[in-house]
Amino acid sequence: DLRLPQSHVDESPWKAPGDMGLMRRLIDAEGPKRRPTNAIAPMERPPPPAPAPATAPATFSGFLPSDDLLECLVQVSEEVSSMGKTPLLHARNVSSTVRRVRLLASLFEELRGWNGPLRPSSLLSLTELLSTIRRAKALVEECAAGSALWGLLQAEADAGRFHAVAREMGRALDILPLAYLAVHADVREQVELLHRQAKRAEVFVDPRERRLREELLQVLAGAPRGHVDGHSGGESCSGGGLGHGRVGEIAWEVGLRSSSDCDEEVARLEAEVSKQAGTGGLAAVSDIKTLISLVLHWKSMVPISNSTPSSSSSFPSSSSSSSSS
C-alpha cells in the first residue's frame, strides 16, 4: 500500500487546500527563498547592437571625419600653391615650402576621390599635415606682408621657423601608410621623395641676407636709439658716422625702391611696434622705432629713382661709403 500514513497527512500544512491564508502565512514565515550558492544562473544575453548606417563615415575621437579632413587639406594646399610671387627675403625657404605643399596637394586630390576607409594612422598623419600646412601658410604670408627691414633682422629666427615646418612635415609623413593608400605610383614616389628631403632638411640662411643683416646691425649701432624723425631734414640720423649710401643700399636690396615703398614700410613697422609691445619687450620696440627713423631719413635725403644703386650716383657702393666714412 503506497498511501501515506494518516498521521502524516493530518499534520501536513496542505491539509486544507482551500485555506490560502494559512499557505500565505507559512510562506511569509519562511522568508524569501535564497538561491543556492552553487546554482547556475540562467544566461542573459544582451540585445544585439543596432547596425550602423552603411553611409556613416568612420570617425575617431579628436579627428575630423575623413571627407571633411581631405576637403580642408585640398583647400589649404591650393591656397599655399596659388600664392603670389616669392618675396625678396627668405626666397629659397619660401619657394621650398610652397613646392613641398604642391607635391602634397596631388596626394590630397587623389585621396579625396577614394571611397575606401582610412586607417587611424592615415587620419593621424593627415591631421598633422593639416596643422603643419596651416603653419607654413601663416609663415609665408607673414614674410610677404611684414616689414622688410624687421624681417631682415629676424632672418635667422625665421629660417629656424621654416626648418621646423619642414621637420614637422617629415614627422607627419613617418606614420602615413602609403602602401595601403590607393594612389598612383608617380604620386607615391613624389611623396616618398618629399619625405626623405623633409627629414634631411637643415636651417638655411641666405648669405646675401646674412650680409645685409650684419650691415643693418652696424647702422643701428651708430643711429640714435628709438628716435623717429618725422620731418624732412633727417639731420638726427645723419651723424654718428651714418652715411646715407649704406642705408640706401640696404633699402634697395630689400625692395624699398620708391617713395610709396618707404611709406608702406613705415606703416608695416608701426604695425610691428604694436605687435612687439606685448611680446618683444622694450628692446624690440626701440629697434623698430630706429628702423622707422632710418626709412624716413632715407626717403628724405636720397632722391629715389628707377635706376639701380650701381648705376646711379645717388647710391654709392659699400667700398666708397665705408672709405668716405
UniProtKB/TrEMBL annotation:
Positions with biased composition (Basic and acidic residues): 1-13
InterPro entries: Adaptor_Cbl_N_dom_sf, PUB12-19-like_N
Amino acid composition bias (Pro residues), ranges on this chain: 44-54
Sequence ranges assigned to domain PUB 12/19-like N-terminal in this UniProt record: 95-201
One Pfam family from the record: PUB10_N
Coiled coil feature spans: none
Top-level taxon in the UniProt lineage: Eukaryota
BP terms from Gene Ontology: cell surface receptor signaling pathway
Region listing for Disordered, in residue ranges: 1-56, 305-325
Identification of the protein by name: U-box domain-containing protein 16
Phylogenetic placement of the source organism: Eukaryota, Viridiplantae, Streptophyta, Embryophyta, Tracheophyta
